[in-house]
Design brief:
Mean pLDDT of chain A: 96
Helix content of chain B: 40-55%
Low-confidence stretches of chain B: none
Oligomer: heterodimer
Largest sheet of chain A: 5 strands, parallel
Order of helices and strands of chain B: HHEEHEEHHEEHEEH
Number of helices of chain A: 5
Distance between the termini of chain B: 46 Å
Strand content of chain A: 15-25%
Low-confidence stretches of chain A: none
Distance between the termini of chain A: 12 Å
Helix content of chain A: 40-55%
Strand order of the largest sheet of chain A: 2-1-3-4-5
Radius of gyration of chain B: 18 Å
Shape of chain A: globular
Largest sheet of chain B: 8 strands, antiparallel
Shape of chain B: globular
Structural class of chain B: alpha+beta
Strand content of chain B: 25-35%
Largest interface: A-B, 24 and 24 residues
Order of helices and strands of chain A: EHEHEHEHEH
Radius of gyration of chain A: 13 Å
Chain lengths: 121, 223
């Protein structure tokens, strides 16, 4: 059965890079979102059982999404994929309920390892 | 007064230098990754959390630069301090070059000094040193990050203080722009409580834009 996967990033290039780095054997139904507001809508509609989330976005950014997911008690698993690699960024996203943090540009091996590590694959 | 032929050539050149939507999006992402690396360096230096915003990419004409920068920094009465550093490509076509300008507003500068717990009032010398340190961290990391993604290497010229606590108009008065058209990338770093923000501008003139487009097309091909 296919897992609803949401990829959220304001950059078309970044979204393509993430799609390209997905493990071939992972059966997913992909939805794309270009900002935090779209992401939250998609998650509420059940299209984001797993979410690959960027942090730096206009309007509602990644941190905002994580906060809302936590406060609304939305059922989802979020892995952050971001260029914001400062020490506190990882700390914060984990504190706000993210499962893990992968730095950009996304490496397909790293993504595969992370998914395996958390039993998502 | 330009005659019709010159005007036509200018227009065609401008078209050549324009980035497509795809190229612009690609550049934004390249800068995003690079500014994340620079933000990381700055965060470690200041031991604070740095807020990154989406980088903005514009194409400006020489006459517009003043105005653009003024608007971006809050008007012509804003006092700023700035550092400028030239960068150039070390390998490959060597066509990629430009200027990195880091601007701080006066308020920001004081906040920065407070953050680094300068006990006495900053004197001119330590202010200059601080300006150069932060600018160096930001432009160095950011440009290296961009170069790495483009598969090339950058060299840097000695940084120069453009001015301390002066208006942008005065600061740019002496800047003799040798270009008509440039790509302006704006990268803003803010501290959480907003007391400090500084902006890194990357200015890439005319022919350099063609090199950027080439590098971007190469990245897009890999997708």
């Amino acid at each position: 059965m296919s897992i609803p996967l949401l990829i959220c990033d304001d950059s078309a290039m970044a979204r393509k890079q993430v799609v390209k780095s997905l493990p071939g054997e992972w059966s997913v139904d992909i939805t794309l979102a270009t900002n935090g507001a779209e992401a939250l809508d998609a998650i509420r509609q059940g299209k984001g059982e797993v979410v690959l989330l960027d942090l730096t976005m206009p309007e509602i950014d990644g941190y905002g999404v994580l906060e809302k997911v936590q406060s609304e008690g939305l059922k989802t698993t979020i892995i952050v994929i971001s260029a914001d690699i400062q020490p506190e960024a990882r700390e914060r996203v984990m504190k706000f309920g993210a499962l893990d943090f992968i730095k950009k540009p996304v490496d397909s091996h790293k993504l595969l390892d992370t998914l395996r590590e958390h039993g998502l694959l | 007064m330009k005659n019709a032929q010159t005007a036509a050539i200018t227009m065609n050149t401008n078209k050549l230098l324009e980035l497509s939507e795809e190229q612009r999006d690609c550049l934004q992402e390249v800068v995003n990754v690079a500014m994340g690396q620079a933000g990381d360096s700055l965060a470690r230096f200041l031991e604070v959390f740095i807020q990154l915003s989406v980088p903005r990419i514009r194409q400006v004409h020489r006459d517009q630069l003043n105005q653009q920068l003024e608007t971006l920094l809050g008007g012509n009465s804003t006092l700023v301090s700035g550092v400028s550093q030239g960068f150039y490509q070390l390998s490959g076509s060597r066509g990629l070059r430009g200027e990195a300008i880091v601007l701080f507003t006066d308020r920001s500068f004081r906040a920065l000094a407070d953050l680094l717990a300068y006990d006495e009032t900053l004197n001119m010398e330590s202010e200059t040193e601080l300006l150069l340190d932060v600018a160096n961290i930001l432009s160095g990391a950011c440009l290296s990050g961009i170069a790495e993604q483009f598969g090339t290497e950058m060299g840097f010229s000695t940084p120069a203080i453009l001015g301390q606590r002066i208006s942008i108009a005065v600061m740019l008065e002496n800047e003799k722009a040798e270009w008509d058209h440039a790509l302006l990338v704006e990268i803003c770093y803010t501290l959480e409580n907003r007391s400090f923000s500084c902006t890194l501008f990357l200015l890439m003139p005319g022919e350099s834009i063609l090199m950027v487009k080439r590098a971007l097309d190469h990245l897009l091909e890999l997708l």
